[in-house]
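Sorry to interrupt, but I need a hand with the structure work. Go ahead and set the record down below:
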Amino acid sequence: MTPKPEHQSNSLTSTQGYVQQLTFAGCPSFLRRPFTRELNGIDLAITGIPFDCATTNRPGTRLGPRAVREQSTLQSHDAPYGWKTDPFETLSIVDYGDCQFDYATISSIPDAIDTHITQILKQDTAALSIGGDHFVTYPILRAHARKHGPLALIQFDAHSDTWEDTDRERIDHGTMFRHAINDGIVVAEHSVQIGIRTSNPDTMGVNILDAPLVHQSSAVDIAARVIHIVGNRPCYITFDIDCLDPAFAPGTGTPVSGGLSSTQAMLILRALEGRLNLTGMDVVEVSPPYDHAGITAIAGAHMAVELLCLWNSCR
């Protein structure tokens, strides 16, 4: 029998190392991290935001956090490949569970999400959130900006989500970044959207590195542009899974052909290693009802791990 490496553990209560459990059995917390709301001494908490009432097309992302957790068990045994530092060797990481809200009182949900994230951040614990449709990023950003000040936003997406919307009572996953900019939560001139391939005449001053540009450039070049735009300002990364081409992420509400490959997205994130003042991050818009063989949930889990590694490298 091969000896078990020191960094591997069968303990379901350890917040560090790796858990050697059957991928097809047990409770599917994210990467087999223990479920807890006790954050004393915890560096990072993964949390689900199972909300999809703001979607404009195909619903189902309320099931995204559960699906991403399930597929993350495939990665729970080994160190993330290709990173200089291993967050599971040095960080205490837990699964904080999901945000609780009354699904029938939709107007109350943004504040419930804001409060949920605030409870994590006030413990000096970072949050990696899993959606849910992309609206959930707006109340998450509010909580982060309250702690860190106005933020530079790094957005991987097929859509800009800055469409015109004059009714502040609407809850929509295509207009929330317009509100975030108008509210002063997001600083447009130091924000960047990567992978855009849908038309919107009003960019709100956000810098756009669209999908054709990404295809024509190297990951290192795209990362250099991001660093030039964002600098050392406090920033937040949101990864809409529809940034990826439907070949890599079919299970999403508004798929758009011509997107990034999983490899392109991962290489861009790795090229940002240690170069950002990163405060938080999320992965959104994984919609299991439209997925096949867990392809999209697998991609979502991998992107979440990449973001976790990036955050660790930037501490």
Q: What stands out?
A: The beta strands are 8-9, 18-19, 44-49, 93-98, 126-131, 152-156, 192-194, 207-209, 234-240, 277-284.
